[in-house]
Amino acid sequence: MLSVGTGCATPPPIAPAIDAVSVPIEVYHNRVYLPARIDGRAQVILVFDNGASVSGLQDSVARALGIKPAGRATLTGNGQSAMSVGLANDVTFDVASTAIREPLVAILPYADFARHEGRPNGGVLGKDVFARFIVDVDYAAHRLTLRDPDRFTYPPSGIVIPLHVRKDATAAWMAARITLPGHAPLEARLALDMGTYSALRLYSPFVKSRHVLGDVAKTVSTYGFGLGGEFPVRLARVQSLDIGGAHLEEPVAELSLADAGATARHDVDGTIGGAILRRFRVIVDYPHAQMILVPNAELATPFTADMSGLVLEAGGVRLATLTVSHVLDGTAAAEAGFEVEDRLVSIDGVSTETLGLERVQALLSRQAAYHVAITRGDSTRNLLLRTRPII
């Protein structure tokens, strides 16, 4: 979720001139990354995010292309810190030979986001694409297709979910039902957010007003992240989540404790993010206010969560150096003796530079015993990390 307050009216959607165009995508950390050419010149990799109120470019990419801000605006991301960002005029994003002209584009400081994500990106392609096209994301096939709303034929199977779409297309939410053990289901308004890595995220006003923390059996204090930095959450599992005819068992939930940023909002109760969406072919139809979910082979896969208690950041050349930013209390990492600012060298003899942040996080979401080599100051140490479920 990324909101930029520009004080400007949103331009009317531009009708597509094509039936459909398709482009290969990468699914990394449950987000969609796609290639695009900027102003017919440099090709960059962008995050695809319906929650972004404007498209944006990494500040270093904008400088390299000579794209200069014509004004300023305040950006509110998932992190708790609001930021002042530049706004450039009339930038064209070429996606699969389709030119998408954006009247306003944010120039974004993505370096901190990249450290948490573990990979660089050139910017974000935001909500205007969803206002203009039917967006068809096939997570299993790693393909994005943009379709003409007037010519699209819906698949014969799929779960149709009504969407409540804001007139300016900056948000779309759906009715959902969250079941906690031993309690009546909670009705919630959950925003669709393709730019969010988590499965279910509940915003702090909803968590407080519905006393969610008192109704879940086991939680752990940790941190979410996004533009604007970190924000505090309690990680938990809910018994089930129902959105339309889609039923999901024991999804992992981030319960926000933030008092600022997007996760402290009142207009919706939370988000459905990539860890759920990747289990489907997701067809987002803003023009007709609906979404179609076609299950794929991942639907029945159990939801995983970190079992280590390590919160890591990536830095250095190619974001290959992994550093401990938090050690969660009472977890396997604390018992193994990890400390903040430890640098991971290898896991079971395999270099963490080779593995990268996403693969390391996947390893640490499994119950196992790992021999982890670290550097602390000028010394190298070997720690035995016995991961176990923490929620």
Describe this structure in words.
The chain has 391 residues and is mainly β. It folds into three domains: 3-147, Cathepsin D, subunit A, domain 1 (Beta Barrel); 159-295, Cathepsin D, subunit A, domain 1, CATH 2.40.70; 310-386, Roll (Pdz3 Domain). Residues 6-15 have low confidence and may be disordered. Strands 14, 15, 16, 17, 18, 19, 20, 21, 22 and 23 form a ten-stranded mixed β-sheet that branches. The chain is globular. It is 12% helix and 45% strand.
Helices and strands, with pairings:
Elements: E1 3-5, E2 20-24, E3 26-28, E4 31-38, E5 43-48, E6 55-58, H1 59-64, E7 71-76, E8 83-95, E9 98-108, H2 111-117, E10 123-125, H3 127-132, E11 134-138, E12 143-147, E13 159-162, E14 164-165, E15 172-179, E16 186-192, E17 200-202, H4 204-209, E18 220-226, E19 229-237, E20 240-243, E21 246-249, E22 252-256, E23 270-272, H5 274-277, E24 280-285, E25 290-295, E26 310-315, E27 321-327, H6 332-336, E28 343-347, E29 350-351, H7 352-363, E30 369-376, E31 379-386
